[in-house]
Design goal:
The protein is α+β, with helices and mostly antiparallel strands. Helix content is 50%, strand content 18%. The chain has a domain of 67 residues.
């Protein structure tokens, strides 16, 4: 008579499953923050945001440009670190004044 092997789920204790679930961590998210400066025009800020931030609509970009001007800075995107680094680099390369990436 062939021996049957226990299934993987039958051999895993409930404690082991809970431990595995506890060790899962989400990918860190970061904020991309544009700072106010005396160099960039509203039009340039809006154009850069629409060009580089996925899904950014001109109306929202204008709102953010006014917030940057009025409050000194604005979070223009938040999400996974690698994407945040890319958008931060692209906006900075276009001359926008960028704050360092911030963990969310």
């Amino acid at each position: 008579m062939p021996a049957t092997l226990p299934s993987a789920s039958a051999s895993a204790s409930p404690t082991a499953v809970r431990e595995r679930q506890r060790t899962r961590q989400s990918y860190p998210h970061f904020r991309v923050v544009v700072l106010n400066d005396d160099v960039n025009t509203f039009q340039h800020v809006v154009a850069c945001l629409v060009r580089f931030i996925p899904g950014m609509q001109p109306e929202r970009a204008w709102e953010l440009a006014h917030r940057i001007d009025g409050e000194g800075s604005a979070v223009v995107w938040c999400g996974p670190q690698e994407q945040a680094e890319l958008y931060h680099q692209q906006l900075g390369a276009e001359g926008l004044t960028m704050a360092p990436l911030e963990p969310d």
